[in-house]
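## Example record

The block below lists the input lines for one assembly entry, exactly as stored, with component labels intact.
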Amino acid sequence: MTESALDDALLTRLKDDLLRKRGEILSASTGTRPLPASMDVNSRQGDLADQASGNNEVHIQLKLKQTDAKILQAIEEALQRMEKGTYGICRDCGDPIAPARLEAIPWTRVCITCKQKQSA
Ligand SMILES: [Zn+2]
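Predicted structure tokens for the full assembly:
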């Protein structure tokens, strides 16, 4: 058996996690908001304005967006791998990724061993 060792229940849960995280990123990224602005948004903007401290805030948001864009891309790829049935397989060495690692980072592409090689 070369199939993924993940059972259906775990796979379903991870897919939910991926979809929810994708939703969070999409709704958090201003400017590409899929839904029309609501009263709720207006009250949030008030909160943001109170916390904002000039250019720093803009800088932080730009940085966040770059990270979010990367995660978003990884989430899309993970969902595609789920469709193909190759989810949970390390992109680099082809070994199964530990379920605990997938639960922590559902959109990860590589196993912990390869990840450690990358950052070494
Ligand atoms: Zn690997």
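Residues 90, 92-93, 95, 110-111, 113-114 surround zinc ion (CB under 6 Å). The domain at 8-119 is CATH 1.20.120.910 (Four Helix Bundle (Hemerythrin (Met), subunit A)).
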